[in-house]
Protein backbone atom coordinates (compact mmCIF):
# COMPACT_ATOMS: atom_id res chain seq x y z
CA UNK A 1 0.00 0.00 0.00
CA UNK A 2 2.87 2.37 0.78
CA UNK A 3 4.15 2.02 -2.79
CA UNK A 4 0.70 2.96 -4.09
CA UNK A 5 0.29 6.21 -2.15
CA UNK A 6 3.21 7.05 0.17
CA UNK A 7 2.54 9.38 3.06
CA UNK A 8 4.90 12.23 3.85
CA UNK A 9 3.27 14.34 6.54
CA UNK A 10 5.69 17.25 6.10
CA UNK A 11 5.16 17.43 2.35
CA UNK A 12 1.40 16.96 2.77
CA UNK A 13 1.21 19.97 5.10
CA UNK A 14 3.34 22.07 2.75
CA UNK A 15 1.22 21.04 -0.22
CA UNK A 16 -2.00 21.91 1.61
CA UNK A 17 -0.73 25.30 2.75
CA UNK A 18 0.59 26.12 -0.72
CA UNK A 19 -2.75 25.18 -2.33
CA UNK A 20 -4.50 27.37 0.25
CA UNK A 21 -2.20 30.23 -0.75
CA UNK A 22 -3.20 29.73 -4.39
CA UNK A 23 -6.90 29.77 -3.54
CA UNK A 24 -6.67 32.85 -1.30
CA UNK A 25 -4.74 34.79 -3.94
CA UNK A 26 -7.22 33.76 -6.65
CA UNK A 27 -10.25 34.71 -4.55
CA UNK A 28 -8.74 38.09 -3.67
CA UNK A 29 -8.11 38.91 -7.34
CA UNK A 30 -11.63 37.95 -8.44
CA UNK A 31 -13.41 39.73 -5.59
CA UNK A 32 -11.20 42.79 -5.17
CA UNK A 33 -9.55 43.61 -8.50
CA UNK A 34 -11.88 45.12 -11.15
CA UNK A 35 -11.98 43.43 -14.53
CA UNK A 36 -10.58 46.47 -16.35
CA UNK A 37 -7.38 46.42 -14.24
CA UNK A 38 -5.65 44.23 -16.83
CA UNK A 39 -2.06 44.86 -15.69
CA UNK A 40 -2.81 44.02 -12.05
CA UNK A 41 -4.67 40.90 -13.10
CA UNK A 42 -1.81 39.87 -15.39
CA UNK A 43 0.67 40.22 -12.53
CA UNK A 44 -1.63 38.13 -10.35
CA UNK A 45 -1.62 35.33 -12.96
CA UNK A 46 2.19 35.39 -12.90
CA UNK A 47 2.03 35.05 -9.11
CA UNK A 48 -0.44 32.15 -9.42
CA UNK A 49 1.96 30.53 -11.90
CA UNK A 50 4.79 30.75 -9.38
CA UNK A 51 2.59 29.19 -6.69
CA UNK A 52 1.63 26.40 -9.12
CA UNK A 53 5.30 25.69 -9.81
CA UNK A 54 5.87 25.37 -6.06
CA UNK A 55 2.78 23.13 -5.78
CA UNK A 56 4.20 20.73 -8.34
CA UNK A 57 7.58 20.73 -6.65
CA UNK A 58 6.01 19.77 -3.33
CA UNK A 59 3.67 17.24 -4.91
CA UNK A 60 6.55 15.35 -6.52
CA UNK A 61 8.07 14.97 -3.05
CA UNK A 62 4.71 13.92 -1.66
CA UNK A 63 3.79 11.20 -4.17
CA UNK A 64 6.05 8.51 -5.60
CA UNK A 65 3.35 6.66 -7.53
CA UNK A 66 4.10 7.46 -11.20
CA UNK A 67 0.51 6.92 -12.35
CA UNK A 68 -0.94 9.37 -9.85
CA UNK A 69 1.93 11.79 -10.31
CA UNK A 70 1.00 11.76 -13.98
CA UNK A 71 -2.68 12.28 -13.22
CA UNK A 72 -2.51 14.99 -10.54
CA UNK A 73 0.49 17.06 -11.70
CA UNK A 74 -1.25 18.25 -14.88
CA UNK A 75 -4.39 18.91 -12.83
CA UNK A 76 -2.42 21.63 -11.06
CA UNK A 77 -1.69 23.18 -14.47
CA UNK A 78 -5.37 22.86 -15.37
CA UNK A 79 -6.27 24.66 -12.15
CA UNK A 80 -3.89 27.46 -13.15
CA UNK A 81 -5.37 27.58 -16.66
CA UNK A 82 -8.88 27.80 -15.21
CA UNK A 83 -7.80 30.64 -12.94
CA UNK A 84 -6.07 32.47 -15.78
CA UNK A 85 -9.17 32.16 -17.97
CA UNK A 86 -11.42 33.57 -15.25
CA UNK A 87 -9.00 36.35 -14.29
CA UNK A 88 -7.70 37.51 -17.68
CA UNK A 89 -10.14 36.36 -20.36
CA UNK A 90 -13.63 36.18 -18.86
CA UNK A 91 -12.53 38.85 -16.34
CA UNK A 92 -14.98 37.63 -13.74
CA UNK A 93 -15.62 40.16 -10.97
CA UNK A 94 -17.37 40.14 -7.62
CA UNK A 95 -20.84 41.05 -8.93
CA UNK A 96 -21.61 37.81 -10.84
CA UNK A 97 -20.33 35.80 -7.86
CA UNK A 98 -22.66 37.43 -5.34
CA UNK A 99 -26.25 36.18 -5.42
CA UNK A 100 -27.26 39.22 -3.36
CA UNK A 101 -25.52 42.28 -2.11
CA UNK A 102 -25.83 40.83 1.37
CA UNK A 103 -23.74 37.74 0.56
CA UNK A 104 -21.03 37.27 3.16
CA UNK A 105 -17.35 37.26 2.22
CA UNK A 106 -17.16 33.55 3.10
CA UNK A 107 -20.07 32.75 0.77
CA UNK A 108 -18.55 34.75 -2.07
CA UNK A 109 -15.15 33.13 -1.53
CA UNK A 110 -16.73 29.66 -1.60
CA UNK A 111 -18.58 30.46 -4.82
CA UNK A 112 -15.38 31.77 -6.37
CA UNK A 113 -13.48 28.57 -5.56
CA UNK A 114 -16.42 26.52 -6.83
CA UNK A 115 -16.26 28.40 -10.14
CA UNK A 116 -12.51 27.76 -10.35
CA UNK A 117 -12.95 24.00 -9.97
CA UNK A 118 -16.13 23.86 -12.06
CA UNK A 119 -14.06 23.33 -15.19
CA UNK A 120 -17.04 22.90 -17.51
CA UNK A 121 -18.68 25.91 -15.81
CA UNK A 122 -21.88 23.89 -15.31
CA UNK A 123 -24.91 26.04 -14.45
CA UNK A 124 -23.18 29.35 -15.19
CA UNK A 125 -23.24 31.82 -18.06
CA UNK A 126 -19.83 30.44 -19.06
CA UNK A 127 -20.90 26.78 -19.45
CA UNK A 128 -19.04 25.06 -22.29
CA UNK A 129 -20.74 23.50 -25.31
CA UNK A 130 -21.68 19.85 -25.75
CA UNK A 131 -22.15 18.97 -22.09
CA UNK A 132 -24.34 15.83 -21.88
CA UNK A 133 -27.79 16.33 -20.36
CA UNK A 134 -28.08 15.23 -16.74
CA UNK A 135 -30.94 12.80 -16.14
CA UNK A 136 -33.46 14.04 -13.54
CA UNK A 137 -32.88 12.05 -10.36
CA UNK A 138 -32.91 12.20 -6.60
CA UNK A 139 -29.66 12.16 -4.66
CA UNK A 140 -30.19 8.50 -3.79
CA UNK A 141 -30.82 7.52 -7.42
CA UNK A 142 -27.81 9.51 -8.58
CA UNK A 143 -25.49 7.93 -6.02
CA UNK A 144 -26.79 4.41 -6.77
CA UNK A 145 -26.31 4.77 -10.53
CA UNK A 146 -22.86 6.29 -10.21
CA UNK A 147 -21.75 3.66 -7.69
CA UNK A 148 -22.78 0.86 -10.05
CA UNK A 149 -21.08 2.53 -13.02
CA UNK A 150 -17.92 3.16 -11.00
CA UNK A 151 -17.75 -0.41 -9.71
CA UNK A 152 -18.10 -1.84 -13.22
CA UNK A 153 -15.49 0.56 -14.60
CA UNK A 154 -13.11 -0.30 -11.74
CA UNK A 155 -13.43 -4.05 -12.36
CA UNK A 156 -12.89 -3.69 -16.10
CA UNK A 157 -9.84 -1.47 -15.57
CA UNK A 158 -8.47 -3.94 -13.03
CA UNK A 159 -8.83 -6.76 -15.57
CA UNK A 160 -7.00 -4.71 -18.21
CA UNK A 161 -4.02 -3.84 -16.01
CA UNK A 162 -3.85 -7.37 -14.57
CA UNK A 163 -3.05 -8.89 -17.95
CA UNK A 164 0.47 -9.89 -19.03
CA UNK A 165 2.79 -7.00 -19.94
CA UNK A 166 3.24 -6.31 -23.65
CA UNK A 167 6.46 -7.41 -25.36
CA UNK A 168 9.08 -4.67 -25.45
CA UNK A 169 9.90 -4.87 -29.16
CA UNK A 170 6.67 -3.37 -30.63
CA UNK A 171 7.02 -0.01 -28.86
CA UNK A 172 10.67 0.87 -29.37
CA UNK A 173 11.52 4.47 -30.41
CA UNK A 174 11.47 3.57 -34.10
CA UNK A 175 8.03 1.93 -33.83
CA UNK A 176 6.09 5.16 -33.29
CA UNK A 177 6.82 6.11 -36.88
CA UNK A 178 4.41 8.59 -38.43
CA UNK A 179 5.67 8.59 -42.01
CA UNK A 180 7.73 5.40 -42.39
CA UNK A 181 4.68 3.17 -42.00
CA UNK A 182 6.09 0.76 -44.60
CA UNK A 183 8.91 -0.12 -42.19
CA UNK A 184 6.42 -1.57 -39.68
CA UNK A 185 5.75 -5.29 -39.61
CA UNK A 186 2.30 -6.83 -39.45
CA UNK A 187 2.91 -7.47 -35.74
CA UNK A 188 3.78 -3.80 -35.23
CA UNK A 189 0.57 -2.65 -36.91
CA UNK A 190 -1.61 -5.09 -34.94
CA UNK A 191 0.00 -3.97 -31.68
CA UNK A 192 -0.45 -0.34 -32.72
CA UNK A 193 -4.19 -0.82 -33.27
CA UNK A 194 -4.82 -2.90 -30.13
CA UNK A 195 -2.55 -0.69 -28.03
CA UNK A 196 -4.31 2.48 -29.18
CA UNK A 197 -7.75 1.07 -28.37
CA UNK A 198 -6.54 -0.18 -24.98
CA UNK A 199 -4.88 3.15 -24.16
CA UNK A 200 -7.96 5.25 -24.83
CA UNK A 201 -10.32 2.82 -23.16
CA UNK A 202 -8.11 2.69 -20.05
CA UNK A 203 -7.85 6.50 -20.00
CA UNK A 204 -11.63 6.73 -20.31
CA UNK A 205 -12.16 4.31 -17.40
CA UNK A 206 -9.59 6.02 -15.16
CA UNK A 207 -11.05 9.49 -15.69
CA UNK A 208 -14.59 8.15 -15.30
CA UNK A 209 -13.75 6.50 -11.96
CA UNK A 210 -12.12 9.63 -10.54
CA UNK A 211 -14.92 11.91 -11.75
CA UNK A 212 -17.67 9.63 -10.45
CA UNK A 213 -16.07 9.28 -7.02
CA UNK A 214 -15.74 13.07 -6.82
CA UNK A 215 -19.33 13.62 -7.99
CA UNK A 216 -20.68 11.06 -5.51
CA UNK A 217 -18.80 12.72 -2.64
CA UNK A 218 -20.04 16.19 -3.57
CA UNK A 219 -23.65 15.08 -3.95
CA UNK A 220 -23.63 13.06 -0.72
CA UNK A 221 -22.24 16.01 1.25
CA UNK A 222 -24.68 18.47 -0.31
CA UNK A 223 -21.91 20.52 -1.92
CA UNK A 224 -23.46 19.81 -5.31
CA UNK A 225 -26.65 18.40 -6.80
CA UNK A 226 -27.31 15.71 -9.43
CA UNK A 227 -28.29 18.32 -12.04
CA UNK A 228 -24.88 19.96 -11.65
CA UNK A 229 -23.05 16.66 -12.22
CA UNK A 230 -23.95 15.67 -15.80
CA UNK A 231 -22.13 12.74 -17.44
CA UNK A 232 -18.45 13.37 -18.02
CA UNK A 233 -18.30 11.88 -21.52
CA UNK A 234 -20.56 12.08 -24.54
CA UNK A 235 -21.79 9.26 -26.75
CA UNK A 236 -19.36 7.17 -28.79
CA UNK A 237 -21.91 7.39 -31.60
CA UNK A 238 -20.74 10.98 -32.13
CA UNK A 239 -17.12 9.97 -32.77
CA UNK A 240 -17.36 9.84 -36.56
CA UNK A 241 -15.08 12.86 -37.03
CA UNK A 242 -12.00 13.98 -35.15
CA UNK A 243 -13.79 17.24 -34.35
CA UNK A 244 -16.64 15.31 -32.73
CA UNK A 245 -14.28 12.89 -30.99
CA UNK A 246 -12.62 15.76 -29.14
CA UNK A 247 -15.60 18.12 -29.00
CA UNK A 248 -18.47 15.74 -28.19
CA UNK A 249 -17.29 12.32 -27.01
CA UNK A 250 -14.26 13.24 -24.90
CA UNK A 251 -14.61 15.19 -21.68
CA UNK A 252 -14.84 18.97 -22.03
CA UNK A 253 -13.01 19.96 -18.84
CA UNK A 254 -10.24 21.76 -20.69
CA UNK A 255 -12.43 23.35 -23.33
CA UNK A 256 -13.07 26.70 -21.64
CA UNK A 257 -9.44 27.24 -20.70
CA UNK A 258 -7.98 26.00 -23.97
CA UNK A 259 -10.35 27.88 -26.27
CA UNK A 260 -10.15 31.04 -24.17
CA UNK A 261 -6.36 31.22 -24.29
CA UNK A 262 -6.26 30.20 -27.96
CA UNK A 263 -8.75 32.97 -28.77
CA UNK A 264 -6.61 35.44 -26.81
CA UNK A 265 -3.55 34.41 -28.80
CA UNK A 266 -5.28 34.63 -32.20
CA UNK A 267 -7.46 37.69 -31.59
CA UNK A 268 -5.45 39.94 -29.29
CA UNK A 269 -1.81 38.92 -29.73
CA UNK A 270 -1.66 37.94 -33.42
CA UNK A 271 -4.72 40.10 -34.26
CA UNK A 272 -5.99 37.74 -36.95
CA UNK A 273 -9.43 38.82 -38.21
CA UNK A 274 -12.28 36.60 -37.01
CA UNK A 275 -14.21 34.68 -39.64
CA UNK A 276 -11.14 33.77 -41.70
CA UNK A 277 -9.71 30.28 -42.18
CA UNK A 278 -6.44 31.50 -40.70
CA UNK A 279 -8.22 32.60 -37.53
CA UNK A 280 -10.18 29.34 -37.24
CA UNK A 281 -7.19 27.03 -37.56
CA UNK A 282 -4.85 29.23 -35.54
CA UNK A 283 -7.30 28.94 -32.65
CA UNK A 284 -7.65 25.17 -33.12
CA UNK A 285 -3.88 24.63 -33.31
CA UNK A 286 -3.38 26.97 -30.36
CA UNK A 287 -5.85 25.05 -28.21
CA UNK A 288 -4.25 21.69 -28.98
CA UNK A 289 -0.75 23.10 -28.50
CA UNK A 290 -1.66 24.31 -25.01
CA UNK A 291 -3.21 20.91 -24.33
CA UNK A 292 0.04 19.29 -25.45
CA UNK A 293 2.03 21.45 -23.02
CA UNK A 294 -0.27 20.49 -20.15
CA UNK A 295 -0.09 16.79 -21.00
CA UNK A 296 3.69 17.09 -21.34
CA UNK A 297 3.66 17.55 -17.57
CA UNK A 298 1.85 14.21 -17.37
CA UNK A 299 4.61 12.53 -19.40
CA UNK A 300 7.46 13.93 -17.31
CA UNK A 301 5.66 13.20 -14.03
CA UNK A 302 5.34 9.55 -15.11
CA UNK A 303 9.09 9.32 -15.61
CA UNK A 304 9.35 9.92 -19.36
CA UNK A 305 12.39 11.96 -20.37
CA UNK A 306 11.35 15.38 -21.61
CA UNK A 307 13.11 14.78 -24.94
CA UNK A 308 11.15 11.54 -25.47
CA UNK A 309 7.75 12.80 -24.31
CA UNK A 310 5.11 12.63 -27.02
CA UNK A 311 2.25 14.85 -25.86
CA UNK A 312 3.76 17.96 -27.39
CA UNK A 313 3.60 16.22 -30.80
CA UNK A 314 0.40 14.21 -30.41
CA UNK A 315 -2.03 17.00 -29.55
CA UNK A 316 -1.10 19.40 -32.38
CA UNK A 317 -1.48 16.39 -34.71
CA UNK A 318 -5.14 16.26 -33.69
CA UNK A 319 -5.57 19.79 -35.00
CA UNK A 320 -4.01 18.63 -38.26
CA UNK A 321 -6.54 15.78 -38.37
CA UNK A 322 -9.42 18.22 -37.94
CA UNK A 323 -8.01 20.42 -40.67
CA UNK A 324 -7.69 17.46 -43.07
CA UNK A 325 -11.22 16.23 -42.45
CA UNK A 326 -12.63 19.75 -42.87
CA UNK A 327 -10.97 19.89 -46.28
CA UNK A 328 -12.24 16.45 -47.30
CA UNK A 329 -15.77 17.30 -46.17
CA UNK A 330 -15.69 20.53 -48.18
CA UNK A 331 -14.54 18.67 -51.31
CA UNK A 332 -17.08 15.85 -51.00
CA UNK A 333 -20.08 17.84 -49.80
CA UNK A 334 -21.81 17.70 -53.19
CA UNK A 335 -21.32 13.97 -53.65
CA UNK A 336 -24.53 11.98 -53.32
CA UNK A 337 -23.45 9.71 -50.47
CA UNK A 338 -25.90 8.53 -47.85
CA UNK A 339 -25.59 9.80 -44.29
CA UNK A 340 -25.02 6.28 -42.94
CA UNK A 341 -22.16 5.64 -45.37
CA UNK A 342 -20.55 8.98 -44.46
CA UNK A 343 -20.74 8.07 -40.78
CA UNK A 344 -19.28 4.61 -41.41
CA UNK A 345 -16.39 6.10 -43.34
CA UNK A 346 -16.01 8.65 -40.56
CA UNK A 347 -15.68 5.98 -37.86
CA UNK A 348 -13.00 4.23 -39.91
CA UNK A 349 -11.19 7.54 -40.45
CA UNK A 350 -11.16 8.36 -36.73
CA UNK A 351 -9.90 4.88 -35.85
CA UNK A 352 -7.15 5.00 -38.46
CA UNK A 353 -6.04 8.51 -37.51
CA UNK A 354 -5.87 7.66 -33.81
CA UNK A 355 -3.98 4.42 -34.50
CA UNK A 356 -1.56 6.43 -36.63
CA UNK A 357 -0.99 9.28 -34.14
CA UNK A 358 -1.51 7.80 -30.65
CA UNK A 359 1.77 5.80 -30.51
CA UNK A 360 3.63 9.12 -30.36
CA UNK A 361 1.80 9.65 -27.07
CA UNK A 362 1.84 6.34 -25.22
CA UNK A 363 4.85 4.38 -26.56
CA UNK A 364 7.30 6.55 -24.55
CA UNK A 365 5.16 5.91 -21.45
CA UNK A 366 5.29 2.15 -22.05
CA UNK A 367 9.09 2.24 -22.37
CA UNK A 368 9.38 3.61 -18.83
CA UNK A 369 8.22 0.19 -17.66
CA UNK A 370 6.01 1.35 -14.79
CA UNK A 371 4.01 -1.41 -13.12
CA UNK A 372 0.39 -0.90 -14.27
CA UNK A 373 -0.79 -2.50 -11.04
CA UNK A 374 0.21 0.65 -9.15
CA UNK A 375 -2.68 2.49 -10.80
CA UNK A 376 -5.29 1.02 -8.44
CA UNK A 377 -5.09 0.65 -4.63
CA UNK A 378 -7.09 -2.59 -4.44
CA UNK A 379 -7.02 -5.47 -6.92
CA UNK A 380 -9.83 -7.94 -7.42
CA UNK A 381 -9.14 -9.28 -10.90
CA UNK A 382 -5.57 -10.48 -10.37
CA UNK A 383 -6.35 -12.77 -7.38
CA UNK A 384 -9.31 -14.12 -9.33
CA UNK A 385 -7.15 -14.78 -12.40
CA UNK A 386 -4.53 -16.53 -10.24
CA UNK A 387 -7.24 -18.65 -8.64
CA UNK A 388 -8.61 -19.70 -12.04
CA UNK A 389 -5.10 -20.58 -13.22
CA UNK A 390 -4.52 -22.68 -10.11
CA UNK A 391 -7.80 -24.52 -10.64
CA UNK A 392 -6.95 -25.26 -14.28
CA UNK A 393 -3.52 -26.57 -13.32
CA UNK A 394 -5.15 -29.01 -10.90
From TrEMBL:
Source organism of the structure: Botryosphaeria dothidea
Gene Ontology BP, a term: lipid metabolic process
Family to which the UniProt record says this protein belongs: Belongs to the wax synthase family.
Pfam families found in the cross-reference section: MBOAT_2 (PF13813)
Residue spans crossing the bilayer: 20-39, 147-165, 199-223, 344-363
UniProt main location, coarse: membrane
GO annotations of cellular component type: membrane
The protein's name in its UniProt record: Wax synthase domain-containing protein
The UniProt record lists the keyword Transferase: yes
Entry annotated with the keyword DNA repair: no
Superkingdom of origin: Eukaryota
Localization terms from the record: Membrane
Membrane topology: Multi-pass membrane protein
Stretches assigned to the Wax synthase domain: 229-314
MF term (GO), any: O-acyltransferase activity
Phylogenetic lineage: Eukaryota, Fungi, Dikarya, Ascomycota, Pezizomycotina
Alphabetic keyword roster: Membrane, Transferase, Transmembrane, Transmembrane helix
Amino acid sequence: MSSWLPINHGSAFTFGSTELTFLILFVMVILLVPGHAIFTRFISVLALSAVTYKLQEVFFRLCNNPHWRGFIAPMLCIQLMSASELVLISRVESAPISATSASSIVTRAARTVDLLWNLRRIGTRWQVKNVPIALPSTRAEFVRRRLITTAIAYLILDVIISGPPPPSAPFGPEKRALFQIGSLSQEDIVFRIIGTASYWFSAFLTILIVFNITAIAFVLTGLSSPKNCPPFFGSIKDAYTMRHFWGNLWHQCLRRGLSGHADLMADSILQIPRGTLLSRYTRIFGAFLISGLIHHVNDVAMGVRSADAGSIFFYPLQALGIMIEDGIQALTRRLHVSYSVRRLVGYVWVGVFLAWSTPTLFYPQLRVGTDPGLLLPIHVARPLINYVKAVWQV
